[in-house]
Amino acid sequence: MSKRTFVCLSLFVALSIAAGVVYASTSLTVPQLAKDIVTVEKQKIALTGTIAGACRSGCKVWLVEGRYKKGDPVILVWAKDNAFKFRTDATGRQVKLEGFAVGQYIDLCATEKKQEEGMKEGESCPKPEVLEKTKEKQLESITFFATSVEYL
Protein backbone atom coordinates (compact mmCIF):
# COMPACT_ATOMS: atom_id res chain seq x y z
CA MET A 1 0.00 0.00 0.00
CA SER A 2 1.43 3.35 -1.00
CA LYS A 3 1.88 6.15 1.51
CA ARG A 4 -0.66 8.29 -0.34
CA THR A 5 -3.31 5.53 -0.24
CA PHE A 6 -2.66 5.00 3.46
CA VAL A 7 -3.06 8.72 4.23
CA CYS A 8 -6.30 8.93 2.21
CA LEU A 9 -7.70 5.81 3.88
CA SER A 10 -6.76 7.14 7.33
CA LEU A 11 -8.45 10.46 6.59
CA PHE A 12 -11.58 8.68 5.37
CA VAL A 13 -11.76 6.56 8.55
CA ALA A 14 -11.23 9.62 10.78
CA LEU A 15 -13.98 11.58 9.01
CA SER A 16 -16.36 8.60 9.21
CA ILE A 17 -15.81 8.32 12.94
CA ALA A 18 -16.19 12.09 13.45
CA ALA A 19 -19.50 12.12 11.56
CA GLY A 20 -20.96 9.68 14.06
CA VAL A 21 -19.82 11.51 17.18
CA VAL A 22 -22.65 12.10 19.64
CA TYR A 23 -23.30 15.74 20.68
CA ALA A 24 -22.80 15.22 24.40
CA SER A 25 -19.82 13.31 25.73
CA THR A 26 -22.11 12.07 28.50
CA SER A 27 -25.72 11.11 28.14
CA LEU A 28 -28.47 13.59 28.85
CA THR A 29 -31.19 12.56 31.27
CA VAL A 30 -34.90 13.09 30.61
CA PRO A 31 -35.07 16.26 32.82
CA GLN A 32 -31.90 17.65 31.19
CA LEU A 33 -33.34 17.09 27.71
CA ALA A 34 -36.61 18.77 28.69
CA LYS A 35 -34.65 21.76 30.02
CA ASP A 36 -32.14 21.98 27.13
CA ILE A 37 -34.35 20.98 24.16
CA VAL A 38 -33.81 24.32 22.38
CA THR A 39 -30.04 23.80 22.48
CA VAL A 40 -29.94 20.16 21.35
CA GLU A 41 -33.05 19.88 19.18
CA LYS A 42 -32.41 17.92 15.94
CA GLN A 43 -28.79 17.19 16.93
CA LYS A 44 -27.44 13.70 17.52
CA ILE A 45 -27.41 13.11 21.28
CA ALA A 46 -27.32 10.30 23.82
CA LEU A 47 -30.25 9.99 26.23
CA THR A 48 -30.63 7.80 29.32
CA GLY A 49 -33.76 7.08 31.26
CA THR A 50 -36.20 4.49 32.54
CA ILE A 51 -38.80 2.88 30.32
CA ALA A 52 -42.21 3.73 31.77
CA GLY A 53 -44.09 1.66 29.20
CA ALA A 54 -44.04 0.26 25.69
CA CYS A 55 -46.65 -0.36 23.05
CA ARG A 56 -47.49 -4.02 22.50
CA SER A 57 -45.80 -4.13 19.10
CA GLY A 58 -42.58 -2.56 20.43
CA CYS A 59 -42.66 0.38 18.00
CA LYS A 60 -42.46 3.02 20.75
CA VAL A 61 -41.69 3.49 24.43
CA TRP A 62 -42.19 6.25 26.97
CA LEU A 63 -39.06 7.33 28.83
CA VAL A 64 -38.92 8.95 32.29
CA GLU A 65 -36.29 9.60 34.93
CA GLY A 66 -36.43 6.91 37.63
CA ARG A 67 -39.85 6.21 39.04
CA TYR A 68 -42.52 8.40 37.42
CA LYS A 69 -44.32 10.97 39.55
CA LYS A 70 -47.17 13.16 38.29
CA GLY A 71 -45.72 16.22 36.62
CA ASP A 72 -42.39 14.60 35.67
CA PRO A 73 -41.29 15.01 32.04
CA VAL A 74 -42.08 12.05 29.75
CA ILE A 75 -40.41 11.54 26.37
CA LEU A 76 -42.09 9.56 23.59
CA VAL A 77 -39.41 7.46 21.84
CA TRP A 78 -39.75 5.95 18.38
CA ALA A 79 -37.20 3.84 16.53
CA LYS A 80 -36.10 6.08 13.66
CA ASP A 81 -37.45 4.75 10.35
CA ASN A 82 -38.80 1.69 12.26
CA ALA A 83 -35.25 0.31 12.13
CA PHE A 84 -35.81 -1.89 15.20
CA LYS A 85 -38.41 -2.82 17.82
CA PHE A 86 -38.16 -2.07 21.53
CA ARG A 87 -38.52 -4.87 24.05
CA THR A 88 -42.11 -4.96 25.25
CA ASP A 89 -41.10 -6.50 28.60
CA ALA A 90 -38.60 -3.77 29.54
CA THR A 91 -40.85 -1.52 31.66
CA GLY A 92 -38.80 -0.24 34.59
CA ARG A 93 -35.45 -0.92 32.88
CA GLN A 94 -32.78 1.69 32.30
CA VAL A 95 -31.78 2.37 28.70
CA LYS A 96 -29.25 4.43 26.83
CA LEU A 97 -30.45 5.71 23.47
CA GLU A 98 -28.74 7.56 20.66
CA GLY A 99 -30.69 9.66 18.20
CA PHE A 100 -32.28 13.09 18.03
CA ALA A 101 -35.10 14.95 19.75
CA VAL A 102 -37.79 17.21 18.34
CA GLY A 103 -39.98 19.51 20.43
CA GLN A 104 -43.64 20.17 19.72
CA TYR A 105 -44.78 23.63 20.76
CA ILE A 106 -48.10 25.14 21.77
CA ASP A 107 -48.76 28.30 19.79
CA LEU A 108 -49.60 31.02 22.30
CA CYS A 109 -49.48 33.78 19.72
CA ALA A 110 -52.62 35.86 20.14
CA THR A 111 -55.07 36.01 17.25
CA GLU A 112 -54.78 39.81 17.29
CA LYS A 113 -50.99 39.65 16.87
CA LYS A 114 -51.36 37.23 13.96
CA GLN A 115 -53.78 39.62 12.28
CA GLU A 116 -51.46 42.58 12.92
CA GLU A 117 -48.56 40.74 11.33
CA GLY A 118 -50.66 39.60 8.37
CA MET A 119 -50.49 35.89 9.18
CA LYS A 120 -52.94 33.53 7.53
CA GLU A 121 -55.20 31.11 9.41
CA GLY A 122 -53.18 28.07 10.51
CA GLU A 123 -49.83 29.90 10.56
CA SER A 124 -48.08 30.34 13.86
CA CYS A 125 -45.59 32.76 15.30
CA PRO A 126 -41.95 31.89 14.65
CA LYS A 127 -40.33 29.44 17.06
CA PRO A 128 -38.50 31.35 19.79
CA GLU A 129 -34.73 31.07 20.02
CA VAL A 130 -34.90 30.75 23.79
CA LEU A 131 -38.17 29.53 25.28
CA GLU A 132 -37.53 31.12 28.67
CA LYS A 133 -37.42 34.61 27.09
CA THR A 134 -40.71 34.41 25.27
CA LYS A 135 -44.28 33.82 26.25
CA GLU A 136 -45.55 33.25 22.72
CA LYS A 137 -44.64 29.55 22.48
CA GLN A 138 -44.55 26.86 25.10
CA LEU A 139 -43.03 23.39 24.92
CA GLU A 140 -45.83 20.83 24.78
CA SER A 141 -43.95 17.57 24.29
CA ILE A 142 -40.70 16.01 23.10
CA THR A 143 -40.40 13.11 20.69
CA PHE A 144 -37.09 11.27 20.50
CA PHE A 145 -36.14 9.31 17.37
CA ALA A 146 -33.70 6.58 18.44
CA THR A 147 -31.06 5.22 16.09
CA SER A 148 -29.81 2.74 18.70
CA VAL A 149 -30.85 1.36 22.07
CA GLU A 150 -28.81 -0.26 24.82
CA TYR A 151 -30.59 -1.89 27.77
CA LEU A 152 -28.59 -1.25 30.96
Any overview of this molecule?
- The radius of gyration is 20 Å and the shape is globular.
- The longest helix has 17 residues, at 3-19.
- It has three helices and six strands, in the order αβαββββαβ.
- Strands 2-3-4-6-5 form a five-stranded mixed beta barrel.
- It has a single domain (22-151), classed as OB fold (Dihydrolipoamide Acetyltransferase, E2P) (Beta Barrel), CATH 2.40.50.140.
- Helix content is 22%, strand content 34%.
- It is of the alpha/beta class and 152 residues long.
- Keywords: Signal.
Topology of this protein?
Blueprint: H1 3-19, E1 28-29, H2 30-40, E2 45-54, E3 60-64, E4 75-79, E5 94-107, H3 111-116, E6 137-151
Parallel strand pairs: 1-2, 4-6
Antiparallel strand pairs: 2-3, 2-5, 3-4, 5-6
Organism: Malonomonas rubra DSM 5091
Protein name: DUF5666 domain-containing protein
Signal peptide: 1-24
